[in-house]
C-alpha cells in the first residue's frame, strides 16, 4: 500500500506499507540494486519526519485496539 500526503495532512511525506514477504523480495540483492532505496518520494525533511513520528506514536495504540475489535 502506498500512502502519500494523506498521512501527514498534506505535508510532503510518503510511506510504503507491505508484508514481510514482499519486503524480502524487494530488499534482496538483485544485481547490486536494492529496490527500496528508490521507493520513497520525500525523505530527510526533519520537521515533516518529526510530525510523522508523532502521528505514529498517537495512532499505533488506537490501531492496536481497533485491530483487536475486528
Automatic annotation (TrEMBL):
Gene Ontology molecular function: adenosylmethionine-8-amino-7-oxononanoate transaminase activity; pyridoxal phosphate binding
Segments traversing the membrane: 45-66
Keyword Transmembrane (UniProt): yes
Alphabetically ordered keywords of this record: Aminotransferase, Membrane, Transferase, Transmembrane, Transmembrane helix
Pfam family, one: Aminotran_3
GO process terms (BP): biotin biosynthetic process
InterPro entries reported for this sequence: Aminotrans_3 (IPR005814), PyrdxlP-dep_Trfase (IPR015424), PyrdxlP-dep_Trfase_major (IPR015421)
Protein name (Swiss-Prot/TrEMBL): Adenosylmethionine-8-amino-7-oxononanoate aminotransferase
